């Protein structure tokens, strides 16, 4: 009997070690999972087009802090600080309620089967597709975290809007992402909006890396004093459509954030990638999809390494 128990234990440990994400993870346990998520996400974006950008960003902010584990969704408790309250997320990260709604929809179909971490990853893909971006195959099978990691979120694992190219490159490298991944994922800023506080310095410091006309236009909504929370589109031309105009903007010194503009004009290797994407939207779309898949693999919990949270905002 003792030998049998040892064999069972070894088998279970083997299964744990070999657990991994797959495209077919829910085919048997919840065959309608992905279509249910997709329907919920499409409904949310049809109500507010900007939500597409927010959901893509939420996936990014989840994965870069201790891996793709839905820790970003957890609300603070007396014993746990929330990543939502970290400086890069506070009053900035959005889409939590959309993920909660998708989770509720999936729970009605398959209770206790689909993780919040998977829902965030799938939602980002569905958001991309809805606004004209690539539809790519999302591997699933993630488990959820039982803790949040605000200190990590505040310590530099999320890029600052003031980040230099070296800072960005080093951060992405630590996450297993290369320079091409950095430039491709930054292209998500073809969508969405930013608060004036994140780019106001660029408008008023007489920098040579910003187009004068572009700066003048932005100053109308972002005065030197006040208006910090006023929103401006990251791409002034097509802010609600996934396209490669972001890269054209960079080449014209019309990147809104300093951390965007550093990708072009410094003579670094990113210059040629920006130029390539500006000419070849198909290459940008395919590289963006590949980088999103790669990002979705960062430090995932699988097998028995974490639970399936019943609601995304709290541990079970």
UniProtKB/TrEMBL annotation:
Keyword Glycoprotein: yes
InterPro entries noted in UniProt: Haem_peroxidase, Haem_peroxidase_sf, Peroxidase_pln, Peroxidases_AS, Peroxidases_heam-ligand_BS, Secretory_peroxidase
Known EC number: 1.11.1.7
UniProt key word Heme: yes
Keywords from the named record: Calcium, Disulfide bond, Glycoprotein, Heme, Hydrogen peroxide, Iron, Metal-binding, Oxidoreductase, Peroxidase, Secreted, Signal
Residues reported to bind heme b: 189
Disulfide bond entries: 30-110, 63-68, 116-312, 196-222
One GO term (biological process): hydrogen peroxide catabolic process
Localisation: Secreted; Vacuole
Plant heme peroxidase family profile domain location: 20-316
Binding site for substrate: 159
Major subcellular location class: secreted
Catalytic activity: 2 a phenolic donor + H2O2 = 2 a phenolic radical donor + 2 H2O
Binding of Ca(2+) 2, residues: 190, 235, 238, 243
Gene Ontology, cellular component aspect: extracellular region; vacuole
Active site annotation, chain numbering: 61
Regions that span the bilayer: none
Stretch forming the signal peptide: 1-19
Marked site (Transition state stabilizer) residue numbers: 57
GO molecular function term, any single one: lactoperoxidase activity
Binding annotation for Ca(2+) 1: 62, 65, 67, 69, 71, 83
Cofactor-binding details, from the entry: Binds 2 calcium ions per subunit.
Function description: Removal of H(2)O(2), oxidation of toxic reductants, biosynthesis and degradation of lignin, suberization, auxin catabolism, response to environmental stresses such as wounding, pathogen attack and oxidative stress. These functions might be dependent on each isozyme/isoform in each plant tissue.
Family: Belongs to the peroxidase family. Classical plant (class III) peroxidase subfamily.
Protein name: Peroxidase
Organism this protein belongs to: Brassica carinata (Ethiopian mustard)
């Amino acid at each position: 009997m003792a030998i049998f128990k040892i064999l069972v234990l070894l088998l279970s440990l083997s299964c744990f070690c070999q657990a991994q994400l797959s495209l077919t993870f829910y085919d048997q346990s919840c065959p309608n999972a992905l279509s249910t998520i997709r329907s919920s996400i499409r409904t949310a974006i049809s109500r507010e087009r900007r939500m597409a950008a927010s959901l893509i960003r939420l996936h990014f902010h989840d994965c870069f802090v201790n891996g793709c584990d839905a820790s970003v969704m957890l609300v603070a408790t007396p014993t746990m600080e929330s990543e939502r309250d970290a400086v890069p997320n506070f009053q900035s990260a959005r889409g939590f309620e959309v993920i909660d709604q998708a989770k509720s929809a999936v729970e009605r179909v398959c209770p206790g089967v689909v993780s919040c971490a998977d829902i965030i990853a799938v939602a980002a893909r569905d958001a991309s597709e809805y606004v004209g971006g690539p539809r790519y195959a999302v591997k699933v099978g993630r488990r959820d975290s039982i803790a949040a990691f605000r200190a990590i979120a505040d310590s530099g694992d999320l890029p600052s809007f003031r980040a230099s190219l070296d800072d960005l490159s080093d951060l992405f490298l630590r996450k297993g992402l290369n320079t091409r991944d950095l430039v491709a994922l930054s292209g998500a800023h073809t969508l969405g909006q930013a608060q004036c506080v994140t780019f106001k310095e660029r408008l008023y410091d007489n920098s040579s890396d910003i187009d004068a006309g572009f700066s003048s236009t932005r100053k109308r909504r972002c005065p030197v004093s006040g208006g910090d929370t006023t929103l401006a589109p990251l791409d002034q031309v097509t802010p609600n459509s996934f396209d490669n105009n972001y890269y054209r903007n960079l080449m014209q010194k019309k990147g809104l954030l300093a951390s965007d503009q550093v990708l072009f004009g410094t003579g670094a290797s990113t210059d040629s990638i920006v130029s390539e994407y500006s000419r070849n939207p198909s290459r940008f779309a395919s590289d963006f999809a590949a980088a999103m898949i790669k990002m979705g693999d960062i430090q995932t919990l699988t097998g028995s390494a974490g639970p399936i949270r019943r609601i995304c905002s709290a541990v079970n």
